[in-house]
Design goal:
0% strand
Length: 201
């Protein structure tokens, strides 16, 4: 099930005021304010990290590291209008990209398949196999292309919010997303997960 956007649209004046007030309290080392932010944003951060990294333990580590950075740098936080969620999204995405780069330097092995935990029923198995094929194709994208797909289609961020998370201007992000979609489509066709739009065998 797709999740309603929770990161990109915190743009009302009240939300910005609340974010600024919360961060001021965190800067003053108020644990209640920190818990409030974690309660609002931990699930999306873990979800982004899991879809980027494919590992629940790593996803939890990344989310914790993102919140640690928020705690450590709260005094330097400035309200730019995009809110705490957008800042955390950007930090989480960058942490994931760093981990993916490190993975490539220590291993040439392919990305392992994720465990199939679906019930042993034919229809569910077939559906899960198709989902697994999509996951493998996304995992095979370049790191930034994968991030573009995850942020846009799984987290349902606007192009502007996703571009901000990747520290890109909107035109560069839209170009990245176009290439990511084209590459993903090619991989899905090659894997037999979708039909060939040209109708070739």
């Amino acid at each position: 099930m797709r999740v309603t956007k929770v990161l990109a649209d915190r743009s009302t004046k009240a939300d910005r005021h609340d974010d600024a007030a919360l961060m001021a309290r965190v800067a003053a080392r108020d644990p209640a304010a920190f818990r409030a932010i974690a309660g609002d944003h931990a699930a999306p951060m873990r979800r982004i990290a899991y879809r980027m990294l494919g590992d629940a333990t790593e996803a939890e580590d990344v989310a914790q590291e993102a919140f640690l950075r928020l705690w450590q740098h709260a005094a330097r936080w400035r309200d730019t209008g995009s809110g705490i969620g957008a800042w955390l999204c950007r930090v989480t995405t960058n942490l994931c990209l760093d981990r993916l780069r490190r993975r490539r330097t220590v291993s040439d092995e392919g990305v392992p398949e994720r465990a199939d935990e679906a019930p042993n029923a034919d229809a569910l198995i077939e559906e899960d196999q198709a989902r697994a094929a999509v996951v493998r194709c996304i995992d095979a994208l370049s790191d930034r292309q994968r991030a573009a797909i995850v942020l846009t289609y799984y987290e349902e961020l606007s192009n502007m919010a996703a571009a901000h998370a990747l520290d890109m201007n909107i035109k560069a992000f839209e170009s990245l997303l176009f290439r990511a979609r084209a590459t993903l489509r090619e991989r899905l066709v090659a894997a037999g997960a979708v039909g060939d739009p040209e109708g070739t065998p």
